[in-house]
């Protein structure tokens, strides 16, 4: 099965946008391997928009820009595969891509065959310049069928920004992950607004098809296209930690958007944290359950519990306040009342510190401003 767990990899757009080229992509491939990301589970290298010429060739096929990719896409794919990784590329359901390059509308089967011939393993499929007379759902179904007819297994990453409530139908048309929101930017409000908007829809994720709240901005620090290119100064390390934990907790795809060739040690360690990745990649892919409130509206504190496989759990605290605060979970709210005879044995998922068996009917922790704390828990006798 493709996308048995949330896909993990790197995408060129957040940092490089239209500056993408062969040198950058091959450098990202090398960094993914040499800096430990591959061993941590990241496997896809995806070229986003702006890789082709502005017009198709005489046979109606897409043509890689020879100045940006002088050796062509088959060469890049072969290099990616030689490193034990998988190769991804970008197209669009519309007549043109978001940056004005040829889209796949009306060319779905030709493009799918071309991608298969190049050795593509992942297709990100955007939604710009889509004809008003077109059918959104049928467009994604058509490309899904074209990819399946291409003779190659290609993970289908649909990106229609939440149009027509894709969580209700994307799985049924054969996609493996679907963008459910607008674009992410390198600031705290952007990623918190995005994840909160999807709190009620992550239950639509399951092995084979995952809700995608957009790529990671971890480690960008205001650089690149969705940072300085859009007027943002970036996030603090504490905020990046909260961002990554939220994506892991929601079983969201982990597609790195920063420059992995030059990532800070803190962010590099964060995105390779084995316990956090294990939460993200848990085979049951259950969404987190909010235990402090019944709505997803803005709150200074958010508390979640997530059921993991093998009778394990994740407990997460988030703090939106401008100062450090204390968060606590009453086990009754997590379905474990004091009188039941069991409690939780808790470990800090980020630091690895074993907190131990909790004898009270609650657990609390101090949470930094705009930060989080996340713990793994197992049942223990009281």
Low-confidence stretches: none
End-to-end C-alpha gap: 41 Å
What percent of the residues sit in helical stretches (DSSP H or I)? 10-25%
Number of helices: 10
CATH topology of the largest domain: TIM Barrel
The CATH H-level superfamily of the largest domain is: Aldolase class I
- In total, how many beta strands? 16
Name the strands of the widest sheet in spatial order.
Answer: 7-6-5-4-3-2-1-8
Structural class: alpha/beta
Q: Which overall shape is indicated by the principal axes computed on the Cα atoms? A: elongated
CATH class of the largest domain, named Alpha Beta
The proportion of residues in beta strands is 15-25%
Q: What is the count of structural domains?
A: 2
Would you mind describing this structure in some detail?
This protein has 382 residues and is α/β, with parallel strands linked by helices. The chain folds into two domains: 273 residues, Aldolase class I (TIM Barrel, Alpha-Beta Barrel), CATH 3.20.20; 93 residues, Sandwich (Immunoglobulin-like), CATH 2.60.40. Helices cover 25% and strands 22% of the residues. The chain is built from ten helices and 16 strands. The strands form three sheets. The chain has an eight-stranded parallel β-sheet. A six-stranded antiparallel β-sheet has the order 9-10-11-16-13-14. The chain is elongated, with a radius of gyration of 21 Å. The chain starts with 7 loop residues before the first strand and ends with a strand. The mean pLDDT is 96.
